[in-house]
Structures are given as C-alpha cells and as structure tokens.
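Title: Prediction job returns without error message
Component: structure pipeline
Severity: low
Priority: P3
Assignee: unassigned

Description:
Job completed but the reporter wants confirmation the result is attached to the right record. Sequence as submitted:
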Amino acid sequence: MATPVKVNGPPASTAVSRVLACLLEKEVQFQLINVGMSKREHKSPEYLKLAFAPKFKVKQDEEVIKQNEEKLSKVVDVYEKRPEEYRFLAGEEFTLADLSHLPNTQYLVSTDRARGLFSEKKNVWRWWGEISGRESWKKVVDMQNAPPA
C-alpha cells in the first residue's frame, strides 16, 4: 500500500481545497493535516520547518524526498504526452489548468534536484518555458524576488 500524500493546511484555503479536489478526483490516498490559521499554527516552528526546510537548509528525510520524487516523475511522464497533442494542458489556449501549475513548478525548477525531472522531458520543458515566460508570471516572480518593503 502506497504512503498517503500529506496535505498540510486548512481545507477552507483555496490552495488546499484545489489539492484536495484533485486528490479525490484521482482517488489518491491522502492525510489532511489541518493547520489552524486562526490559532496561527501556520507560524509554528514545526510548520515553518516543513514548508521552508529546503530554502533554509534544514535537515530533511531523504527517503520521503526520494519517494515523492518518484511520484512526481510519474506525473511528469504523463504530462510529457499532453504537449505532444496540444500547445497547453487543456488545448491550444492558456487556461487555469496551466496557470495553476505556475507556483509549484516555479519552486521545483528552481532547485537543482527537481529541475531535471522537467528539463529532461522535451514537451514538458517547452510547455514550462511558454507558461513561465508569460508577462503576468514574470511580474509575479519579480514580486516574489523583491526585497521586503
């Protein structure tokens, strides 16, 4: 039996609810770890360590990372077939299906460890280049990289 995916966050969150809907749609087992935003649990050291461990060079569980890289690799293999048929995930036009991939994929391709999962797939890499090269997304990345005000 596969290890269930852990989803951290409140189900009322639009980001978390999008993830939950996808997992339920595909019948993927998951464990919801509700993070109480009103209690500021998302500011706890445990949550911040989970969310930002790679950025701050916190020790991570290599076995868990390897398992999840294998899962991601399978997803990317499926995605490799989509841009063979269409320019974007849902057809010939940029849609919410593409847009919803921008934040997480940006994070992944900015790491040496995960970038290869995308760059070694010709169609996925072309698709990523096209959606991440959109002016709107470039502006978001600029905002993310700007020093705090």
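Comment from assignee: result matches the submitted record. The first strand starts at residue 5 and ends at 8.
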